[in-house]
Design brief:
This protein is α/β, with parallel strands linked by helices and 501 residues long. The protein has two domains: 7-249 and 455-474, Aldehyde Dehydrogenase, Chain A, domain 1; 253-435, Aldehyde Dehydrogenase, Chain A, domain 2, CATH 3.40.309. 37% of the residues lie in helices and 20% in strands. The chain has helices at residues 41-58, 63-79, 81-92, 96-116, 155-166, 180-193, 207-215, 228-240, 263-275, 295-306, 327-343, 395-403, 418-427, 464-467, 490-495, and strands at residues 7-9, 12-14, 21-25, 32-37, 123-125, 132-139, 143-147, 170-174, 200-202, 219-225, 244-248, 253-257, 285-291, 346-349, 366-369, 386-392, 407-408, 410-414, 432-435, 451-452, 471-478. The strands form six sheets. Strands 14-15-16-13-12-18-19 form a seven-stranded mixed beta sheet, sandwiched between helices. A five-stranded parallel beta sheet has the order 9-8-7-10-11, sandwiched between helices. β3 (21-25) and β4 form a beta hairpin. The model has no long low-confidence stretch (mean pLDDT 96).
């Protein structure tokens, strides 16, 4: 066990006001990693006060200088990539190859948003009056509150934190209680990169700390990634207080496989999308929509591929599927096995806890056949290594089944027909669409987010990521040296046909 994991507030590592602690543990071995401070409303208030004090100076720091700090952060994360990845695997379970990829996303985002320090693009446009100039600028907002999940302990916070910081905001971050030690190591990289005290603040704890951050009057923006139930509660509470809110919530993503698909390519992509990260991704594939002609061969190939997967401790060589994150997750996935059987689905492989893999929260990669679109396992987010196969007769039916979901994050289609591929691009109503690729693997230079119950219309990453953490300021400069009045057409006045104000 390591030393107490503390909050980072106003440039100092500090203990919680209440003196209460909890423990972070390894989901593969069940061993305790470290005690952790448990924050409450007063700790959140301290962090917000520190962020508020730092904001007046940070917003005036030239954006290129802010960007340079992000470049330094990228270099530090590159040096510490393996150490941070190993700790993340110990805390949340996915294989160390995956956690290295998690850190790499943060590195990529640091370089990308560091470059925005010399862009942060606004625009100019013609104005109606002579000797007058108009432009629209991005402006910082103030204090940003971040609430992030455990499944991507570094990548998801980087998607939020780095655009917020380069835009001139300060941050109070409340990560998941399942990954506090990884979060603290991530924050240490910001410290060593030279970010001023109070610009980045970390408060560790449970939902009460997140609620306090949501409700604090000085927090101008709330950015949340997590479950739909919690996200909607955050949204309603924060919106009632006039805050800007960005949400990234659930998914029920599908891969469509048509009769003309490349079978080997599809099998590899489906396996990774469904069982990588133990199915604990918002973009994980949990529905497999298969055209009738290819279904028998695809089923046979998927079963053979699933048998090659190795469940175990993500730090061990050769392991491809780690544990679920905690007992609650294991109980939820296990409960859906009973739901599937009651609904009449056919269990083809898996379906239970993997006791051979170790004492942790291991679950067998699972495939159900005979699933209909109305079954609960085809409609509800399970968040585990569980894949449901739905048979359809045509592309049109496949698209209909895909779109008939409460969620709309990611979808995919495998076909060798370019016309069908473009039809799918047009008709699939998800925020992300893949052609001949699985449902996972988004890159930081493109917008990330979904439709319907997945979010509230905002996007992370890419240029769109800046929209979440900036406000537009329109500026008009009159250089005529005298007061100008627009000439107004009399007929327009009489008809009431005037635009503008």
């Amino acid at each position: 066990m390591t030393d107490l994991v503390k909050n980072y507030i106003g440039g100092r590592w500090v203990e919680g006001r209440s003196g209460q602690t909890f423990e972070t543990s390894n989901p593969a071995t069940l061993e305790v990693i470290a005690p952790v401070v448990r924050s409450g409303a007063q700790d959140v208030a301290d962090a917000v006060a520190a962020a508020k004090s730092a904001y007046s100076t940070w917003r005036l720091t030239p954006a290129p200088r802010r960007g340079e700090l992000l470049f330094k952060l990228a270099l530090i994360l590159t040096e510490r990539k393996d150490d941070l990845a190993r700790l993340m695997t110990q805390e949340m379970g996915k294989t160390v190859a995956e956690t290295r990829g998690d850190v790499q996303e943060a590195i990529d985002m640091a370089y990308y948003m560091g470059g925005e320090g010399r862009r942060l693009k606004g625009y100019t446009a013609p104005v109606e009056m002579p000797n007058k100039f108009g432009m629209a600028l991005r402006d910082s907002v103030g204090i940003v509150g971040l609430i992030t999940p455990w499944n991507f302990p570094v990548a998801v916070p980087s998607w939020k934190m780095l655009p917020a910081l380069v835009a001139g905001n300060t941050v109070v971050w409340k990560p998941s209680e399942d990954t506090p030690a990884s979060s603290a190591m991530f924050v240490q990289a910001f410290i060593d990169a030279g970010f001023p005290a109070g610009v980045v603040n970390l408060v560790l704890g449970y939902g009460d700390a997140g609620a306090a951050l949501t409700e604090h009057p000085d927090v101008r923006i709330l950015s949340f990634t997590g479950s739909t139930t919690t996200g909607l509660a955050v949204y309603s509470k924060a919106a009632a207080l006039g805050k800007k809110v960005t949400l990234e919530m659930g998914g029920k993503n599908a891969i469509i496989v048509l009769d003309d698909a490349n079978l080997d390519l599809a099998v590899d992509a489906i396996t990774w999308s469904a069982y990588g990260t133990t199915g604990q991704r918002c973009t994980a594939c949990s529905r497999l929509i298969v055209q009738s002609g290819i279904r028998p061969k695809l089923t046979e190939a998927l079963l053979a591929k699933a048998k090659t997967l190795v469940v175990g401790d993500g730090l061990k060589e050769g392991v491809t599927v780690g544990p679920l994150v905690n007992q609650k997750a294991l109980d939820k996935v296990s409960a859906y096995m009973d739901v599937a059987r009651q609904d009449g689905a056919d269990l083809l492989i898996g379906g239970g806890r993997d006791t051979q893999a170790g004492p942790g929260y291991f679950f067998q990669p699972t495939l159900f056949g005979g699933v209909t679109p109305a079954m609960r396992i085809a409609r509800e987010e399970i968040f585990g290594p569980v894949l449901s196969m739905i048979e359809v007769g045509s592309l049109e039916e496949a698209v209909q089944v895909n779109n008939d979901s409460a969620y709309g994050l990611s979808s995919s289609i495998f076909t060798e027909n370019v016309n069908k591929a473009f039809q799918a691009i047009r008709d699939l109503t998800t925020g992300i669409v893949y052609i001949n690729h699985g449902t996972t693997g988004a890159e930081i230079q493109f917008p990330f987010g979904g439709t319907r119950g997945t979010g509230n219309g905002m996007r992370e990453a890419g240029q769109a990521g800046l929209d979440s953490f900036t406000e537009w300021k329109s500026v008009y400069v009159d250089f005529s040296g005298r007061l100008q009045r627009a000439q107004i057409d009399t007929d327009a006045v009489l008809s009431g046909d005037l635009n503008g104000s």
